[in-house]
Amino acid sequence: MRNLKQIFLVIVIIFVSSFQSLFSQCLTASNGQYPSSTFVPACSGSSETILTDGFAGEYSVVTVVTGTNYTFSSSVGTDFITISNSAGIVSYASGTTPVNWTATFSGNIRFYTHTNSSCGEASVSRSRALTCSTVCTSPSNETCATAVTITYDQIQAGFNTSSFLGCADNCVGRGYFDAFYRYDCTCTGSYTFDMRSSNGDTYLRIFSGSCCGTLVGSNDDGYGGDDPTLTLTLTSGVSYWVECGSYSSTGMGNSAYNLYASTTCVEVVLQEGQDCGWAPTICSDAQISGNSTGPGNIDDLNVINQGCMQDGEHQSQWFYFQAQTDGVIELSIVPQNGTDDYDFAIWGGLSCPPSGVPIKCSYAAAYKQINTGFGPERHYFLVDNGDVITTDYQSGLFPNEERYIIYDHTNAVVINSGWSPGDISHTVINCPSGDCQYSISLVENYGDGWDGLVFLYVDGVNPFSTTGLKSGSGDNSEDIWDDGFVDQLNVLAGQTFTVLIDNYYATTSPYTLDWHLSSGTSLDCESLPVELISFTGKCTGSLVDLAWETASENNNDYFTVEKSPDGIQYSIIENVKGAGTTQGFTFKFNFVDYDVLPLQYYRLSQTDFDGKTETFDPIAVKCKEFGSGEISIKMTDNLVEVFFSDKSGRNYVVKIIDITGRELYNTKVEIIDNNQKVYIPDDKINATFFNVIVIGEMEMVAKKMIKQEH
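The structure corresponding to this sequence follows.
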């Protein structure tokens, strides 16, 4: 029996040896394990040497990770390699060097080398090495279209996130792997972004206007240096894309990174009526009783648009109105306490802040000042029988050199005169017909510049506190010493206007606004013009990126970009600021159109500061269709309707953004029906000017709208 067992054992050994040769694998190793430690590869994509003095007929233990591809090699080109489990029983791969294998588990394996497939052994030194790289998994925000949106509230609270970079270069020409974040800025101020404690040779870039569009900030850490940090000023109303990237030139993706964002900016919220961006619309000539408690939160006046309003806003009220028919507009602004000093300005068109100087403007003071010079300066007012005229005289440095004279023109009588005058109180008599004309004349004897002030009241009301538009006034703008009235406003049907009324004394006391319309004019606000602005991606997918360049410019104010679906009828889609006058410098300009058609035409014109315009030849841009169906946006009775036609099965985000970039409304919409409507109620729109933006996976549509006040 013992001999039979020995014979059977010999047969088994011979069978196993034949089996190993038959299936080309070698799991024997008389030289054992070398080195004694387990090798853990970095999987950087480069070759990694395990040892340089190994023998044939031994193995090394290597740690592998599931999903990772490995290439095992020997320095002897004829060596036979076998990869097995950690016990050396199960073979996973074998063959002449090199051998490729993708791990199906995480753990340890044996890496055998033999001189041939017959499992030959040799005590001659050779190197064992491997190369490995992970199977890159794309993160959700690897592309521009899928950028993760971050909000002002998140940044203000100290935004931070950790994730992995993508598997491709999505801003061609820069790095190798990246991921994207988007911030629709709602607050102009300083922001800081950094990638502290991130892996690899990292870089950070920020674009405005579109993803990989206009570069506004860039920082490359320099390999082995500090991780990149950017601090820069961002502008409200502008969209920014943050690109986190890594120069992984060895071909590895999915590097770990961190992104931090913070800001010192304080978000500004529009004040209804007090800020130009949220002002009521006047729809008729009905009398208005208005009031304000402050200047609002936005500095709507600046050196470009303030005109005569040289001291800014104090307690301001903004309005818009539109002429329905041709004619003449006059108006009066009367302080209800009879003493406040109200100023006003009117700009043509609807824009906030106003883009140019006012067409009508009065900054006249409610008080009168003794004229510097030899005078007299005369101001007229009307009185009735029994009215009491009083003055509050505040003398200059030399009161004996100045005086004011009140004169009764109806009866040709001087009421008071004399140098170094004081206050007076005079009751009107001999004015049987009412509305008798009086005047006050201001005289300064030597012109020394030290001038006194006179506040005049008729029954407690300052007759010079009323201001407005009046035919025959003789001026369109006036400063502090004028009479408070400028010429009438001659209007054409359809013209629009922006109005500012400001209480210089800031008493919070209200005013009354009276309209005086003539020559057939009337007011209307039902057809205020709305400019349509649309957005999408690149023309290769979903956007048209327009760019132009100037070698030199002469007196160039701005460019106008127009678009047409047929090359015949054009509409303005954007004005882009020019460079003024340049010689010897190249300037590049960019505008991205997000409303892509299969075929569209663009036309560029240039306007000088003196108003002269030059129009250049149009270009045609052809793009592929990126989606079917249609998205339309309209508003009826201040109810916004978004209509999705043939968009079933898609998801969208609908936003309302005011002109400062502040987000007023944000909702996700799942389209179930082919013809589905989404409504946004009036109480969600706390602004006069606003944009409705609809964002999908492959498209974005926007429309600028104006809320009507009834």
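Residues 42 and 579 are 53 Å apart (CA to CA).
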